[in-house]
Amino acid sequence: MRLALSISLGWLLLGTVVLGQQPQAAPATATSTAPATRASAGSSAVIVGLDGEINEFTRASVISRIEQARKLGADTVILRLNTPGGMVLPAMEISRYIKRQDDLHIIAFVDEMAYSAGALISLACDAIYMQPGSFLGDSAPIVPGGSLEGAERAKAESPLLAEFRDSAMRNGYDPLLAESMVQYGIVVHYVENEAGERRFVNATEYERLIKEGWKPVEGVRNPVDGPNELLTVNADEAQKLGLSKGQFPTAEALAEALGLKVLATLQPSGGEQIIAFLSNTAVRGILGVVFMLALLTAFRTPGMGYPEAIAVGALAIMVGVPMMTGYAQWYEILMIVLGVLLLAVELFVLPGFGVAGITGLCLLLGGLIMTFVPAEPKMPGILPALPGTMAALKRGVAIVVGGLACSLFLWVWLQRYLPKLPYFSRLILTTPTGNVPVAESQVPGAVQAVVWPAIGTRGRAATDLRPGGSAAFPDESINDMRVTDVVSDSGFVRAGTEVVVRQIEGNRIVVRAVT
Question: Where do runs of H (alpha helix) occur along 72-188?
Fold first, then answer.
């Protein structure tokens, strides 16, 4: 599915992208704290932070730190979550890993939010506690611009639904609540009878029980979840619905209330934080601008070396980080490599901007866009089926296309100033080419310096001109040929080609191949 999408994006880079909005829960209006059950005397805990987007790198980091907590002698791990979600497959792996840890008591503490993949991980833990005002929920397959029906809907929901149901059954949550975080169309009511018995029921069961004298539970919204909503609850609602066991301001306060001695707080390592920093949308956007600007410079002045080196460095980071976090797939890397090779052919073999250059640029940009898109369980259709995947696709298009637009703007703007700098003055042609008599630029009465080589002087390119390079011209003062730096106004010129001086501006000599 993602291979077809990658190819489509490579050739239809600026095609229409369906936009949507992430569902948001209403803000909490009240907080409450329930007494926590104290752990046995001498119990110890380690706090493990899970912040930001969930990906393959996050999965490896979290599992590694939980294993480190075990080595420290902890019998309880408080998994502090503050995440908008992320990749489904790594989240499912974390969820299954947590449920296999029979010798560790793993508690989820929702700090601010645990949406989508974060909700999946939270429900896998042995218990959930929340910070006042935090949110939990929202994890459903959605196809932008339409809806899945029948067998396709069931196929798309199946992996997530099975995982949510399993966690609910293991940890004593009502399966209907868990399902309502994944499925649209479910209506959930919370009702009770005169004896105080409470149930979560669907719309059909609700109508039957109401006729028998059951009533909606007071203090809880009715319905708990509507047909066009994904269950997303704040800390108060989660506690009333039995999803959360209580509220605490910090994970440390929770540990104290449970009678746990905190042995350590394990945050991502320095290297992991660098990877997380380079994965940041803003940083990748800046890298995109740097890469595009360097690429444009390389096209305008091929062979100078510095633009190519900067472009390769920026591209290495833009591709390397997604490879480490699990976003980049082999066919996306192949698209990028082919794109770079075609651009290299355009730069060094077939100067100009033709079929190879356009095809290479499309493949390169399409591959870069797809490095923002995570893999997801097998879903029907071509477009992403999960909300996090679609959001990542939109973000990738915005960053890559936006970076291209910004770099074009900067390129045009910088052309006004770069020629004034000693090095860049040799790279950019800012005045019309052709014979401009030296006398026109000389001040009357001034001492005239000897100009070498003079306009019209013929010589030979000592190196390939890409378009910058060196050329040799006769110098009467030494009765020999002398080599000087030049720039070609006609693109690539091979070494040994006869050239003629067309223009002199300061220390900048413009030449053209003699045909």
Answer: 88-99, 117-124, 150-171, 175-180
Q: What are phi and psi of 396, to 5 degrees?
A: -65, -45
Encoded tokens for 188 = 């959930």
Angle of helix 355-370 relative to helix 2-11, nearest 10 degrees, comes to: 140
Residue 465 · residue 471 · CB < 8 Å: yes
Helices 330-344 + 2-11 axis angle, to 10:
20
pTM of the model: 0.61
Q: 418 in helix, strand or coil?
A: helix
| Residue 205: alpha-carbon gap to chain centroid | 44
Spell out the per-residue pLDDT of the chain, length 515, in tens.
444 445 444 444 333 333 333 333 333 333 444 445 444 434 899 999 999 888 878 888 899 999 999 999 999 999 999 998 877 888 999 999 999 999 999 999 999 999 988 999 999 999 999 999 999 998 654 443 344 454 444 555 677 888 999 999 999 999 999 989 988 888 999 999 999 899 999 999 999 999 999 999 999 999 999 888 889 999 999 999 999 999 999 999 999 999 999 999 998 877 777 877 877 777 888 888 888 888 777 766 655 667 778 888 888 888 877 777 666 677 778 888 888 888 777 766 665 556 777 888 888 888 888 877 766 555 444 455 555 566 677 777 887 888 778 877 887 777 666 555 555 554 554 444 444 444 444 444 444 455 788 888 999 998 888 777 888 999 887 788 888 888 888 778 888 999 999 988 766 788 999 87
Assess contact for 188 and 224: CB atoms under 8 A. yes
User: Which CATH code fits 34-268?
Assistant: 3.90.226.10
199 strand-pairing partners: 191
The three-state secondary structure class of 200 is: strand
CATH annotation of 433-513:
2.40.50.140
Cα gap 11→33, rounded to integer Å: 55
**Tokens standing for residue 354:** 């033709």
CA 485 distance to own-chain centroid: 43
Q: Which helix (H) or strand (E) holds 112?
A: strand 105-115
Cβ–Cβ under 8 Å, residues 410 and 49: no
Question: Where exactly are the structural domains of the chain?
Answer: 34-268, 273-420, 433-513
